[in-house]
Amino acid sequence: MGSNHVNRRNLIKQAAAAGLIAVPAVGALTSCASGSGEDNKVEKGKKTKDNPLGVNKSAALEIYIFDGGFGTKYAKDAQAVYEKNFPKAKTKLKSTQKIQSVLQPRFNGGTPPDLIDNSGAEQMDMGVLVGKKQLTDLTDLLDAPSIDDPSKKVRDTLRPGVVEMGQFDGSPVWIMYYAYTVYGVWYSQKALDKLDAEYPENWDDMLALCAKAKKKGMAGWTYAGKHPYYLPFSLYPFMAKIGGPKVLEAIDNLEPGAWKQPAVKAALEAYYELYKKGYILDGTPGLDHIESQTAWNEGKALFIPNGSWVENEAKKTTPKDFEMRVAAPSGLDSGDKLPFGTLWASGGEPFIVPAKAKNPAGGMEQLRIMLGEASSKNFTKQVSSLTSFNGGTEGLTLPPGLQSAVDALDKAGKNIVNPRIQDWYVALQKEKIGVACLGEMMAGRMTPAETIKKAQKYTDEAREDDSITHYKHN
Amino acid sequence: MEHGKYRFIVGFLIVPLTIYAVFVIWPFAQSIYYSFTDWTGLSPDFKMVGFDNYIKLFSDEVFWKSLQHSLLFLLLLPLVTISLALFFAFMINVGGRRRKNSAVSGVRGSSFYKIVYFFPQVLSIAIVALLFRFAYNPRSGSLNAALDAVGLSALKTAWLGDPETALWAVMAVMVWSTVGFFVVLFSAAMTSIPRDYYEAALLDGADRITTFFRITLPLLWDTVQSGWIYMGILALGAEAFAVVQIMTTGPGGPAYSTTVLPLYVYLKAFRDGQAAYATTIGVALLVVTLAFAAVVLKLGRRERLEY
């Protein structure tokens, strides 16, 4: 066959080489190409006593809910209340596990829904949304009277810290966290009883208890090895307990010496000792969150750092007599700056009202309904988690884990910390510090000194990267 | 006649080429354009930033790691998969010796093996990845259990949880899931090779290895080359992404040990709100893919045998 013939195979091969192969890989991204949205908001309704946000009573409302550990029923129940209050309004509630894939094109096109539960693995980056002015300021909602008691503002019915968490630099409030999560060290009271032990309040007792457990063939700790950013749930408040709340603020502010602080070093060394002494469950670095929770439920390990969603998430594998508990992290010694009980608690399930939503007043009104006592109680009953509404647990029999979370909150009192690195710098927290530093250290592949150096390097890089929006504690 | 030919071909191709241009080339050109902006992917406004994204790319440690892994995939996967597939196909079709009164045949039970090899092909890659994720589980996975059972407990490790083994564990899954496809492809090609060649070789006393390298491989060259390109695409694109994303979760294994370019594109665009930077990485991926295709086509050019 001569080479000057255009034979079929050559033609195909060259076309393939030129682009058929490679082009689609890049082209896929632009499927969410940007367009510009026009301002097509609905007219506002009249503000009255029953309608303090001035909702247009016949305007449609579109809600998007993350369909994760909490499901969507609680939101549908609240939607029904909205429909009852505004019978002429057409409301739509959609749900997805892929918030970003579904909603990113709509933000780009300028036609986002009116209320979004921006949660889950595909959470849209809040720092970017705020930086690009894509969100509605929720101050109006916070200053509106509560749905239960017209003499109280919504703001005054919330748990401490929730409003601040929704702010990024300054006074506007961009996010309303609906769930309230208690982080800490989770364990089974039954397992401790079997070892004839109390929850250890300082690190020597912790090590002694782990040694005792090891003799019985039980590991002291396990954690989500494939998602080591679960470790900070107990590690960060531990740092704060040792050195005071300023320690965490320095980390959040991406300060040059943040990871070199003595309290940070002490905390990392204490955790590293768990590895050195063999108190970590075998194979933990290869387990994901579900697998590690299951091993913990099976009594293979005593402690696991986690958040209060674990009770609902691990329901299927938790034995009936497990008696799930959460405790604040054990301290280091008597030199600690904060008392035992210092705890990480903060808002979860971030709800946002997009700046370009057609009916922002409706979105906020829906949130006002959800933050009422009835809806809040309904949520707690359904998914055994607290909401940001302060109270709403009276008269409910809480499951053991949640009850212990409420007790832990009581015990913590004012000593609640809320490291913002988790929501300000997602990539830095989860992947750089979580996986590449803490995960490696707890698997024994890096020493605390190396971990500190690396974490500081990543922190410095994030501070110097001006494509990231930076935030500071006031 | 020669003149009219090209017009004739273009006439036929105009519709598909237009579709291709609108739906593939145009978004692709757009992507390159976006790589010069600061588009977040979460808002319609952005501005031009010149080469900022490219400069950032050069000092991005994770990008280089992903590139390194993607290149490793690109070199090793086709090599291992195609060698294995050639070996299996050869054994199935011509590896056997003098049975059923025919000079050339496969090994005993070859039709059964063909089905066994092809089986993984009917499973979606997501399911394969999930199955192996369970198999690699350090506590309850079948792999460590098997090692225990044969007395090799010392070899047990956390597979996907250890940067030393994670990348290899992921690659093994990709080989497992694609080798069967090539066995079938090569088998089909081998059956079209005239039997007389093999019989002549046998009469001359050639052994299996000689037969393979002197007859089978040269006559199969075109098919091998196509397979090579196909495997390269899998290694650079969707399959590598799926396997890494599902099996190692998070940002691509412990200490970035399994990040590959398509996963990094995804993370930047859909987790970090840096869509423009993601398109920049995409452009890098495009360059790698084009270079790969060019090299394979250049190296693969040979005299074609007619039979």
Can you describe this structure?
The complex is a heterodimer of chains A (474) and B (307). Chain A has 20 helices and 10 strands. Chain A is of the alpha/beta class and 474 residues long. In chain A, strands 1, 2, 3, 4, 5, 6, 7, 8, 9 and 10 form a 10-stranded mixed beta sheet that branches. Chain B is mainly alpha-helical and 307 residues long. Chain B has one domain: MetI-like (MetI-like fold), CATH 1.10.3720. Chain B is built from 13 helices and 2 strands; from the N terminus they run H-H-H-E-E-H-H-H-H-H-H-H-H-H-H. In chain B, helix 10 packs antiparallel against helix 13. Chain B is flat. Chain B starts with a helix and ends in a 7-residue tail after the last helix. The interface between A and B is large, with 70 and 72 residues. Chain A: Belongs to the bacterial solute-binding protein 1 family. Chain A: It comes from Streptomyces bathyalis.
